[in-house]
């Protein structure tokens, strides 16, 4: 996360102290996309689904893996997991540079999460995924 090009410069403060470790993984549903042998089995992306209140808390794709459909795959998996958990919608507070991605994968803009200095000194777009039943 901290190595992501999306969190360079002024955005670095948002993830400076953020850690996805054992406590986070134990408390939330976290899923990863792992590359095959050609990627050395590295983590190429991940997301975290919070059930109460329903929220996509984190979604990251490694810089070198972007543009290959991994983000779409993670969103499709998230929607399947949300549906299985009985959710019909969930919220996402987007990183500003990711706004276009969320539009492209079907999230609907619902508002703005206002700045929360010092960690996040800028407003962020808020989205909602509507989870259709199968």
From TrEMBL:
<dbReference type="Pfam" id="PF13673">
    <property type="entry name" value="Acetyltransf_10"/>
</dbReference>
<feature type="domain" description="N-acetyltransferase">
    <location>
        <begin position="1"/>
        <end position="134"/>
    </location>
</feature>
<dbReference type="InterPro" id="IPR016181">
    <property type="entry name" value="Acyl_CoA_acyltransferase"/>
</dbReference>
<dbReference type="InterPro" id="IPR000182">
    <property type="entry name" value="GNAT_dom"/>
</dbReference>
<protein>
    <submittedName>
        <fullName>GNAT family N-acetyltransferase</fullName>
    </submittedName>
</protein>
<dbReference type="InterPro" id="IPR053144">
    <property type="entry name" value="Acetyltransferase_Butenolide"/>
</dbReference>
